[in-house]
TrEMBL record:
GO terms for cellular component: lysosomal membrane; plasma membrane. The gene is LOC104957710. The lineage of its organism: Eukaryota, Metazoa, Chordata, Craniata, Vertebrata. Pfam families: MCLN_ECD. This is Mucolipin-1-like. InterPro entries: MCLN_ECD, Mucolipin. It comes from the Eukaryota. Residues 18-113 form the Mucolipin extracytosolic domain. Coiled coil: none annotated. One of its GO terms (molecular function) is NAADP-sensitive calcium-release channel activity.
Length: 113
């Protein structure tokens, strides 16, 4: 019985370490990649220009990772678009219409990627 309790405590501590690691890394990545990120503040984009600015910022930060990160974060060159490891993927329904007179949707279930 004692061994089972010991294993349960070790399992709990291990899980706590994984959760803490994930939370701390998520916070670090938000500060690193999200332009003007502030903890607890609502994040929003209002214009197309602001959106492109934030995407450009995230890409610049990503490409600079080997020079600016203290951790062991890296990427494989040549794996993504334009020789970098970064690529952007979009998924959307091929076609869809909305009939405002009766609030019905007609969506083609085919997804383009």
């Amino acid at each position: 019985m004692r061994s089972l309790r010991y294993e349960l405590v070790l399992f709990g501590l291990s899980n706590q370490m994984v959760v803490t690691f994930k939370e701390e890394n998520t916070a670090a990545f938000k500060h690193l990649f999200l332009q003007e990120f502030q903890d607890g503040a609502a994040q929003s984009v209002h214009t197309q220009k602001e959106l492109y600015s934030r995407i450009h910022y995230a890409v610049q930060q990503y490409m600079a990772l080997p020079q600016i990160s203290l951790g062991q974060y890296a990427y494989v060159l040549g794996a993504g678009e334009n020789g970098s490891a970064l690529s952007l993927c979009q998924r959307f329904y091929r076609k869809g219409t909305i009939d405002p007179s009766n609030d019905t949707f007609n969506i083609d279930p085919h997804v383009d990627t």
